[in-house]
Amino acid sequence: MSFAISGVNCAAATPLNADLTPDLGLFASHCQQLLAEGCHGIALLGTTGEANSFSLAQRRQILEAALAAGIGPDQLIPGTGVNAAPETVELTRHALANGVSRVVMLPPSYYKSVSDDGIFASYARIIESLGDDRLRVILYHIPQMSAVPLSHALIGRLIAAFPGIVVGIKDSSGDLANMQAIAAAFPGFAVLAGADPLLLPLLQSGGAGCITATSNLIADSLRTIYDHTSDATRTAPAQARISAWRTLSNSYVQIPTIKAMIGLKSGQAAWNRVLPPLVPLSEAQAAELAETFATLPGPVS
Amino acid sequence: MSFAISGVNCAAATPLNADLTPDLGLFASHCQQLLAEGCHGIALLGTTGEANSFSLAQRRQILEAALAAGIGPDQLIPGTGVNAAPETVELTRHALANGVSRVVMLPPSYYKSVSDDGIFASYARIIESLGDDRLRVILYHIPQMSAVPLSHALIGRLIAAFPGIVVGIKDSSGDLANMQAIAAAFPGFAVLAGADPLLLPLLQSGGAGCITATSNLIADSLRTIYDHTSDATRTAPAQARISAWRTLSNSYVQIPTIKAMIGLKSGQAAWNRVLPPLVPLSEAQAAELAETFATLPGPVS
User: Fold this and answer.
1) Which residues of A touch B (CB under 8 A)?
2) Are B259 and B285 in contact (CB under 8 A)?
3) pTM listed for this prediction
4) Alpha-carbon distance A99 to B105, whole Å?
5) What is the predicted ipTM?
6) Domain of residue B95, residue span
7) What is the number of structural domains in chain B?
8) In angstroms, how far is CA B184 from the centroid of its own chain?
């Protein structure tokens, strides 16, 4: 099965300067390291990347910084969906103008209890407004944040209306059965797990890969899962490691914890900064995290 | 009790051109009519105004159109809170540069389950970044849309940290007891009801006024409530009328219904347009709405 997007893609975290602007240099080197560690792609500017807390100008800068560092446009999958359709168009057009054709597109998420017709109209308006055959849209199902779930009926309508354009979905619901059902219903449509431990079972049931947060830390183990899916002697230790790292990252508020763990791994304290409304871990939490971090399993072969 | 904001303020709906850009001329004349019908102020660019579906550039145009039509800056209370703090700063600075000092500020609402510390840090960063003593911030509590409720402890911290700047709250929760408790806890802090039928009981228990959707249609009756709060012979028929109109506006999805009702009142079909992810009423709904609309009570003295 050939998918328009597959493999291990990192929901890259975004380091910050002291004034809370993005640290572009550190971000670019983080992306380079992620690729060196085994990521197929960098899904920058998503939920973990705190994209919604950056201005449009900052979002463009962050993508441009990765490109300027020599990362290929085909390795970058930026989030471009914001609440205002004209701005989603603007960000997506900017990506396309830079040779980046694959984007993760969050639906508008301010209004709640909206209908499938309304979400369909939102995506259709944006895709038609762009009118660019190079575009590849990965839908974004993350009901715990957006509170705007994407139904299977809606997904089917979008694939039918925009064949070759609407090519996949990032499913961050944590609901494996939902991901498997989408993969079964729409052959060739790329289903990407948003939770690291689900990469293996999803690959075993028709999924395409993942876009995850823990790959900021242990991309090598996720790559082992992807490359050796049916070899339990390889996947078992990788899966155990992923589970241990993921459990720790979810022991506190996830995004500040992932960033603090990148800080512990890299020795760069800049990673401890987060944008409001997120807050850094407390000193007590950070100390406890560091203690457990030191006990986490290292790389497996 | 003197409040920095009080009275009847309309959560103005925004009419659209066929290409879904804002119809600036029709919007400005709608605002003028609202003031003529009794509104003290126009709370444009809120939830009812579909602000989150417009680009920053469109939001600035909409405010400028009202000003250009001769509406006083002291009669305009735009919503300026978006997810990205640098953009909330940009929109608020634009308002201040145009002499508009009072803004309704939604907290960032993409991330859920955020702490009071995080919401406080968001508002503090924005207010400190603006550094403008003219600024008057009305907080926005609308948990059914934002999913980011504002606690009383947080409100108290913001008032204490920014006295004379954080001056009020629009409470769209529909929970009168919550509004009354805020008014009791923070004397001089303006509590504004987001639901029309609650204006009367809130005024009777220390509230300052309202910012509501039905005032797009029957501002005169809300003004009667405000001007004659303790005269039941005046308030009873006004309250009955408000209740009837509000009940109809909530019989279908509220914002498309409010807009369709403005269309029925004004004869301008442009009001039937809404921005995705909202959708217009179906033909059957529109026909049913028109039938009931014709039976609604007219102005009361």
Assistant:
1) 20, 47, 52-58, 82-87, 90, 107-112, 114-115, 117-119, 121-122, 125, 144-148, 255, 275-279
2) no
3) 0.97
4) 37
5) 0.97
6) 7-231
7) 1
8) 22
